Amino acid sequence: AKLVHPILLSGHERPVTYLKYNTAGDLLFSCSKDSTACLWHADSGEHLATYKGHSGVIWSLDVTSDSRLLATGSGDKTVKLWDVQTGEVYYTWTMQAPVRSVAFAQGDRRLIIVTDPFAKRPPTILIFKIDPENPRNQSSIPIRE
Q1: Is residue 54 within 8 Å of residue 80, measured between CB atoms?
Q2: What order do you get walking across the sheet with 69-74 strand by strand?
Q3: Are the beta carbons of 20 and 28 closer than 8 angstroms?
């Protein structure tokens, strides 16, 4: 029988809230209640990067199919679009409620954002058009709500 050796990912200071492989399966992204997202080499567990910029728990994340852009959704009512390699925040969307989930559509030209019910507001689903070629130039107005 083959022994399976688990990979220990030690980099977050609080519980992990979400994990996501990139399309190729060689990278693993995690986010946590410590307000950070991390990047790991999937096979070895080597910690490659930490993305800092949120002020609340990060509940969800997604990465584009080419692994260039990372989206994170947080309880601080923001969604951030990051450069995976440099860790630079390209764009921040500010919502009216905590963000529960984010996901890129196939083709990486749409981003869906789901917010929690908050202050008598119902949960909301918003869809934003994404321009992956000009990541700093995003629209703050959803194409659907």
Answers
A1: yes
A2: 58-63, 69-74, 78-83, 89-94
A3: yes
